Amino acid sequence: MNSETVFQEFTVKGFTLIENFINSSEVENLLQECSTIVQNMELPEHCSVFHTGKDQARDEYFITSGDKISFFFEKDAVNEKVMKILKYNDPVVVQSMVIFKHPEIGGLGDCVIIHGSVIHKSGKNTSNMSRPVYTFHIVEKNDTKYSKENWLQPSEALPFPSLYLN
Protein backbone atom coordinates (compact mmCIF):
# COMPACT_ATOMS: atom_id res chain seq x y z
CA MET A 1 0.00 0.00 0.00
CA ASN A 2 1.50 3.31 -1.11
CA SER A 3 0.55 5.79 1.61
CA GLU A 4 0.66 8.90 -0.56
CA THR A 5 -1.46 7.27 -3.30
CA VAL A 6 -4.08 6.21 -0.73
CA PHE A 7 -4.14 9.71 0.77
CA GLN A 8 -4.37 11.46 -2.62
CA GLU A 9 -7.18 9.20 -3.84
CA PHE A 10 -9.10 9.71 -0.58
CA THR A 11 -8.62 13.49 -0.77
CA VAL A 12 -9.53 13.86 -4.47
CA LYS A 13 -12.25 11.21 -4.88
CA GLY A 14 -13.60 11.05 -1.32
CA PHE A 15 -12.92 7.32 -1.06
CA THR A 16 -10.13 4.82 -1.56
CA LEU A 17 -9.71 1.05 -1.61
CA ILE A 18 -7.01 -0.87 0.22
CA GLU A 19 -6.99 -4.38 -1.18
CA ASN A 20 -6.15 -7.30 1.11
CA PHE A 21 -6.40 -5.10 4.20
CA ILE A 22 -6.93 -8.23 6.29
CA ASN A 23 -6.17 -11.81 5.31
CA SER A 24 -8.69 -14.61 4.81
CA SER A 25 -7.93 -16.10 8.25
CA GLU A 26 -8.73 -12.78 9.94
CA VAL A 27 -11.94 -12.50 7.90
CA GLU A 28 -12.94 -16.01 8.98
CA ASN A 29 -12.21 -15.20 12.65
CA LEU A 30 -14.38 -12.04 12.48
CA LEU A 31 -17.22 -13.93 10.80
CA GLN A 32 -17.04 -16.78 13.32
CA GLU A 33 -17.14 -14.42 16.30
CA CYS A 34 -20.07 -12.50 14.79
CA SER A 35 -21.87 -15.77 14.17
CA THR A 36 -21.40 -16.76 17.82
CA ILE A 37 -22.78 -13.41 18.99
CA VAL A 38 -25.79 -13.67 16.69
CA GLN A 39 -26.51 -17.26 17.79
CA ASN A 40 -26.53 -16.13 21.44
CA MET A 41 -28.63 -13.01 20.84
CA GLU A 42 -31.91 -12.66 22.75
CA LEU A 43 -34.41 -11.75 20.02
CA PRO A 44 -36.98 -9.82 22.10
CA GLU A 45 -34.28 -7.27 23.02
CA HIS A 46 -33.17 -6.79 19.44
CA CYS A 47 -36.31 -6.18 17.44
CA SER A 48 -35.52 -2.92 15.66
CA VAL A 49 -35.24 -2.59 11.91
CA PHE A 50 -32.53 -0.24 10.64
CA HIS A 51 -33.36 2.20 7.88
CA THR A 52 -32.12 5.61 6.85
CA GLY A 53 -35.36 7.54 7.33
CA LYS A 54 -35.54 10.50 9.70
CA ASP A 55 -37.84 8.64 12.10
CA GLN A 56 -34.97 6.19 12.76
CA ALA A 57 -33.62 8.77 15.24
CA ARG A 58 -36.81 8.35 17.32
CA ASP A 59 -36.35 4.59 17.71
CA GLU A 60 -35.30 4.17 21.36
CA TYR A 61 -33.41 0.94 20.69
CA PHE A 62 -31.47 2.62 17.88
CA ILE A 63 -30.70 5.77 19.87
CA THR A 64 -29.39 3.83 22.88
CA SER A 65 -27.48 1.18 20.92
CA GLY A 66 -24.12 2.95 20.87
CA ASP A 67 -22.85 1.42 24.10
CA LYS A 68 -24.25 -2.12 23.77
CA ILE A 69 -22.18 -5.25 23.09
CA SER A 70 -18.73 -4.03 24.02
CA PHE A 71 -15.78 -5.41 22.14
CA PHE A 72 -12.21 -5.14 23.28
CA PHE A 73 -9.64 -5.29 20.52
CA GLU A 74 -6.14 -6.50 21.11
CA LYS A 75 -3.42 -3.90 20.70
CA ASP A 76 -2.69 -4.63 17.02
CA ALA A 77 -6.28 -5.31 15.92
CA VAL A 78 -6.87 -1.75 14.70
CA ASN A 79 -4.52 -0.43 12.06
CA GLU A 80 -3.64 3.11 13.17
CA LYS A 81 -1.47 3.48 10.08
CA VAL A 82 -4.53 3.95 7.86
CA MET A 83 -5.67 7.06 9.75
CA LYS A 84 -2.11 8.40 9.76
CA ILE A 85 -1.98 7.90 5.98
CA LEU A 86 -5.16 9.99 5.75
CA LYS A 87 -3.34 12.57 7.91
CA TYR A 88 -5.91 12.47 10.74
CA ASN A 89 -4.42 14.08 13.84
CA ASP A 90 -6.94 12.98 16.46
CA PRO A 91 -9.24 10.23 15.11
CA VAL A 92 -11.96 9.01 17.45
CA VAL A 93 -13.97 5.82 17.11
CA VAL A 94 -17.68 6.57 16.69
CA GLN A 95 -18.88 2.98 16.32
CA SER A 96 -18.24 -0.34 14.64
CA MET A 97 -20.80 -2.81 13.40
CA VAL A 98 -21.38 -5.85 11.25
CA ILE A 99 -24.01 -5.68 8.52
CA PHE A 100 -25.34 -8.97 7.19
CA LYS A 101 -26.15 -8.69 3.47
CA HIS A 102 -27.93 -11.95 2.79
CA PRO A 103 -28.21 -13.32 -0.76
CA GLU A 104 -30.94 -11.69 -2.81
CA ILE A 105 -30.83 -8.60 -0.54
CA GLY A 106 -28.68 -6.17 -1.65
CA GLY A 107 -12.96 -8.95 -2.45
CA LEU A 108 -12.70 -10.69 0.69
CA GLY A 109 -10.55 -8.70 3.18
CA ASP A 110 -10.53 -5.42 1.25
CA CYS A 111 -10.95 -2.09 3.03
CA VAL A 112 -13.00 0.73 1.51
CA ILE A 113 -12.44 4.12 3.13
CA ILE A 114 -15.19 6.68 2.51
CA HIS A 115 -14.95 10.35 3.44
CA GLY A 116 -17.88 11.57 5.54
CA SER A 117 -18.78 14.18 2.92
CA VAL A 118 -19.38 11.51 0.28
CA ILE A 119 -22.98 10.36 -0.15
CA HIS A 120 -22.90 6.59 -0.23
CA LYS A 121 -25.06 3.54 0.20
CA SER A 122 -24.82 -0.20 -0.08
CA GLY A 123 -27.41 -1.59 -2.42
CA LYS A 124 -29.24 -4.87 -2.51
CA ASN A 125 -27.07 -7.98 -2.70
CA THR A 126 -28.34 -9.71 -5.85
CA SER A 127 -25.80 -12.54 -5.81
CA ASN A 128 -26.43 -15.99 -4.36
CA MET A 129 -23.65 -15.46 -1.79
CA SER A 130 -23.91 -13.76 1.60
CA ARG A 131 -21.99 -10.47 1.78
CA PRO A 132 -21.24 -9.57 5.41
CA VAL A 133 -19.68 -6.14 5.89
CA TYR A 134 -17.74 -4.91 8.91
CA THR A 135 -17.81 -1.14 9.31
CA PHE A 136 -15.59 0.87 11.57
CA HIS A 137 -16.65 4.53 11.79
CA ILE A 138 -13.87 6.97 12.61
CA VAL A 139 -14.01 10.77 12.52
CA GLU A 140 -11.26 13.37 12.76
CA LYS A 141 -11.69 15.26 16.02
CA ASN A 142 -8.90 17.79 15.50
CA ASP A 143 -10.19 21.17 14.20
CA THR A 144 -13.62 19.75 13.34
CA LYS A 145 -17.10 20.04 14.79
CA TYR A 146 -19.12 16.83 15.06
CA SER A 147 -22.67 17.49 13.86
CA LYS A 148 -25.37 17.58 16.53
CA GLU A 149 -27.66 16.02 13.88
CA ASN A 150 -25.81 12.70 14.04
CA TRP A 151 -27.85 10.11 15.93
CA LEU A 152 -24.87 8.85 17.93
CA GLN A 153 -23.42 11.55 20.18
CA PRO A 154 -20.46 11.40 22.55
CA SER A 155 -21.15 12.14 26.21
CA GLU A 156 -19.17 12.46 29.42
CA ALA A 157 -20.24 8.93 30.33
CA LEU A 158 -19.49 7.54 26.88
CA PRO A 159 -17.02 9.67 24.90
CA PHE A 160 -15.74 8.48 21.55
CA PRO A 161 -12.41 6.74 22.33
CA SER A 162 -9.27 8.09 20.72
CA LEU A 163 -7.76 5.65 18.24
CA TYR A 164 -4.19 6.75 18.93
CA LEU A 165 -4.48 6.80 22.74
CA ASN A 166 -6.22 3.43 23.22
TrEMBL record:
Reported cofactor(s): Fe cation
Molecular-function annotations in GO: dioxygenase activity; metal ion binding
Pfam families xrefs: PhyH
Keyword check for Ion transport: no
InterPro entries from the UniProt entry: Phytyl_CoA_dOase-like
Domain of life according to the entry: Eukaryota
Cytoplasm is among the record's keywords: no
Keywords recorded for this protein, A-Z: Dioxygenase, Iron, Metal-binding, Oxidoreductase
Gene3D superfamilies, sorted: q2cbj1_9rhob like domain
Record-stated family: Belongs to the PhyH family. PHYHD1 subfamily.
PANTHER family the record matches: PHYTANOYL-COA DIOXYGENASE DOMAIN CONTAINING 1 (PTHR20883), PHYTANOYL-COA DIOXYGENASE DOMAIN-CONTAINING PROTEIN 1 (PTHR20883:SF15)
Record's protein name: Phytanoyl-CoA dioxygenase domain-containing protein 1
Higher taxonomy: Eukaryota, Metazoa, Ecdysozoa, Arthropoda, Chelicerata
Gene: phyhd1
